[in-house]
TrEMBL record:
The chain crosses the membrane at residues 87-106, 112-131, 143-162, 174-193, 205-228, 248-266. The lineage of its organism: Bacteria, Bacillati, Actinomycetota, Actinomycetes, Pseudonocardiales. InterPro entries: TM_pro_TauE-like, TSUP. Signal peptide: none annotated. This is Probable membrane transporter protein. Its main location: membrane. Pfam families: TauE. Belongs to the 4-toluene sulfonate uptake permease (TSUP) (TC 2.A.102) family. Keywords: Cell membrane, Membrane, Transmembrane, Transmembrane helix, Transport. It is a multi-pass membrane protein. It is found in: Cell membrane. The keyword Nucleotide-binding does not apply.
């Protein structure tokens, strides 16, 4: 059996455990860059392997890896996909504020209740998207510019708050919001969601870093893996188009529903 590394910031992981978490971070980065939902892979892997401690340490450390990956994905999308920066940046700002508030309440709210609410929401999202095969195939704004911006700000604040609490599916909810309500194509929505996701991760870290909840050694190593996966995922999404992103979106939503259902069953 491999002995623990005993390096500062690594929570006494074995080398095999560290390699497993790096692989999980790479895969999470790829999935997250395409359509969100990478937390379905990365956070459970950390919770499984980090010995002892509170869940909040895994959550905080995963944000370090996630912000590195989402930043790399956003940069890759910006090179390949036109983005409405005048709308994306204000949405990112309110999402950052929402995420900061959510992180502050991460330990105070009953996660079991929130998991049920989110699972139901994901089922509705999945069925709605599946029943509308043309949804998100092209950019088709549904409202005047002012209303569109208001919807993006509302979605950014609400979903950012959920991300701060540690809710799964943040990226998927952002993509669905931008596709179904704002009228973006899936690729444009994924690109915009990455910019917003950078802000939600940053907002959470504004709380977690001063609170001393980040395992920096582990977080930085996983960040490198997450970046590699994110660049790959964003390149695939931008190259293959909205139909590919839609298929991945539905797959991730199904995975999130089963993951949350399993958590709810175990907690019951």
């Amino acid at each position: 059996m491999l002995t623990a590394l005993n390096w500062p910031g690594f929570a006494d992981l074995t080398l095999a455990g560290l390699l497993f978490l790096c692989a999980a971070a790479f895969l999470a980065g790829a999935v997250d860059a395409i359509v969100g939902g990478g937390g379905l892979i990365q956070l459970p892997a950390m919770l499984m392997l980090l010995p002892g401690g509170e869940v909040v340490y895994s959550l905080a450390t995963s944000k370090v890896a996630a912000i590195a990956g989402t930043s790399a994905a956003a940069r890759t999308y910006a090179k390949r996909t036109p983005m409405d920066w005048r709308a994306a940046l204000p949405m990112a700002l309110v999402a950052l504020i929402g995420s900061l508030g959510g992180a502050a309440l991460a330990d105070a709210l009953p996660s079991s209740v929130l998991n049920v609410v989110v699972m139901v929401a994901l089922i509705v999202v999945g069925i709605y998207t599946w029943r509308k095969p043309d949804l998100g195939s092209v950019d088709a704004p549904r409202f005047a510019r002012r209303i569109q911006l208001a919807l993006m700000l509302l979605g950014g604040a609400a979903i950012g708050f959920w991300d701060g609490i540690a809710g799964p599916g943040t990226g998927s909810f952002l993509v669905f919001w931008l596709v179904s309500l704002v009228g973006f194509a899936f690729v444009t929505a994924s690109a915009t969601a990455k910019v917003v996701n950078v802000a939600t991760n940053l907002g959470a870290l504004f709380f977690f870093i001063p609170a001393g909840k980040v395992l920096w050694g582990l977080g930085l190593v996983m960040a490198a893996s997450n970046i590699a996966g994110s660049v790959l995922g964003a390149t695939l999404a931008a190259g293959r188009g909205s139909a590919f992103v839609r298929r991945v979106f539905l797959t991730v939503v199904v995975g999130l529903v089963f993951s949350l259902g399993w958590k709810i069953a175990l907690s019951g």
